[in-house]
Queue: 3 jobs
Job 1
Amino acid sequence: MHYSLLFSRCAAITCYIFFNLSPIVTVITIISITVIYGLGTGGVYYIPWALYTFLADVDEVFTGRRREGVYAGSMTFAGKISRSIIVFSVGATLTHFGFQPKSHIQPESAVNAISWIFFGGVTVLALIAIFFSCQMTLNRKTHQIVSDEIDRIRQGGKINDAGEEARKTIETLVGWPYEQCWGNNVICKKMQSP
């Protein structure tokens, strides 16, 4: 909630100063931005955790082992590292533009920097996220193929009996030939040796 209020204030200042909007239009704009921001924030927190359960299945195809805990720990660590980098970068940027931490009135350069961080920074990070999410070939259809193949192998199926669609999908997701999946590769053998 604290971040939503901060974001709304920055958006209000941006609308009022840069676009010279009337107070009522500024309020409507802020409400609209806050709703969009709330939906986006929900997606930012929900989507990675929803996707990570599928990644554990792909990892099982590659390694032959279930390692959900490794993925949960990695995601938590990566989230903390990325947030700390963002906080540091924003702090360094604001300091560079003359932000006064204990002052109620900020220089114009600091106000402009805040506006550009919220507009430009968020836009750039969103575009980067969209780019990388478009690279992801794991979707409901491919995950179903992976799940069916995991079930087939668990029930005693042989690696050589894999269907062409399953073989092709798994090779695309894992990045290795199908015969080298299920722990049959140099990397997994090194993980298993003491």
Job 2
Amino acid sequence: MPPLWTKPSFIGLPDEKPQAIHAKRKKEVSCILDESPRFKVVLTDAPYADLRYEEEKLGNIAELYRFNCRSEEELILNCTDADALLVTYAPVTRRVIDALKKCRVISVYAIGLDMVDIQAATRAGIPVTNVPDYCIEEVCDHAMALLLAAARKILSYHLSVVMDGQWNWQMAKPIYRLRGKTLGLIGFGKIPRAVAMRALSFGLQVVTFDPYVPSEECDQAGVRMVGLDDLLQQADFVSIHTPFTSETKNLMNEDRFRLMKRTAFIINTSRGPVIEEKALLKALEEGWIAGAALDVLSIEPPVQNPFLHMKNVILTPHAGFYSEEAVETLRTTAALEVKRVLTGQKPEHLVNPDSLKCGKHE
């Protein structure tokens, strides 16, 4: 495979004058642009009605192939000879990566990277990119919307009026004043910091747990750093904002749900497997906590999930990232990362720089 970051050079014959060499180079460059190789770019599982942003950025250098891959087998079947992958949720595992014969880049339509085996990609010398800041405002707003809907029991009122024909404010008792309550943020990256700003404007006190953030940064944001157990014991609302890793899998388990207030709500706009769902179900059924508002689940879309039938659970379909503006940024940025690599440039949002140390890039 040719080096990723080098550009073609053109050398004239020894007896050619500089002007002739320059003209020849210009002509050769033009020919190469006109007859450039058509790379194969596979969109493994893009959930979009059209490919206008991808075609705009890649149409002049690549053929786009769109699939709806959900398994390793489907990915291997359709992606083995791809020059680049654009990935949404499809599981790009070590087995899939080992089957990629000439892949130059895996570009992920997301901030999180739990769908790609980064270590395997690095060993294979394949750069992986993400879109690290495309939906900060959207996820933040969604988390606050879920918090407010839970606090004011909006869904309960709506169903009571529309489905049961009741016009009765007392049916959702008790509801407590929001100002003065405590919001606990698990994680304190860009999104929870934006959530904290909004929550403080509502008069909430905000605490956070994040072992990778200095307490001074929390102090500057008007947020108090506490231990995880303390956060769960103090918070009236617990909002999860962690990536999904081996450390955070089932972070919210039965022991931790038992620490929460009986009047507390849990909100998750990060990744479903951060919550052990059997433990959450038990906490809801037995009244350890008041309710849950979830934008993500361990299995999406849900199949025979008991949360679908619980009155104290609000569900949205992994929509926290969405706005028209965010989707345009996401798709454009992901496609541009593919274009950069395929045209010999370095990607801007490379998450595994060690992949470039592989011999094939030297």
Job 3
Amino acid sequence: MKTERKQKNSIPIDYKQNPKVEIKAVVKHKHIVRKVCELVLLALLVGAGSASAYASEITKENVYKQINYYREIRGLKPLEEDQRLESAAEKKAQDMLNRDYFEHYAYNLTPWNFIAEQDYNYLYAGENLAMDFQTSEGMVRAWMSSPTHRKNILNPDFDDIGIGIVKGEYTENDKSHETIMVTNMFGKEKPKLLQFFDSVMNSLKKIF
């Protein structure tokens, strides 16, 4: 049986850091930072008891809970489940199983094709992939250990998430095995005004 071995590099979009602010805070308020670190460590230990003390199966609910747990303990807003992104993620996961590939780009398709097909007019978008994991905790921890996956999970620009989970047979190098294919689609929609402008431009293209 294959265990938690495979993940795919994510596609980070507009991830931002502000190291100058962090350095300044450390220099001028060492005692405050030390106390905050102690409190954060305590919170992490307590949180780990409620969120990661057991191994849960890979379901949309469990993956969603794990991802938002890592965001919320860092002061980030939780992601909202979006049905359109969920449909895009499910179709991508199923397509990878049907055609035996594990890539962001394949068969002249991109993640954005799957998202656009669901009428999600995105300003920012990203994708995380995983397969051959047995628990949601192990899978999300692996993503958090990978810089590019982590950037998507903790990207403050994203508002929405769609989780696609498909079980089936995957063939690689002429060897087949049962697996769980997981696709996470992250996104932020364009403002309504920009969406209206896009629709006008698309209409004009059809006319001319």
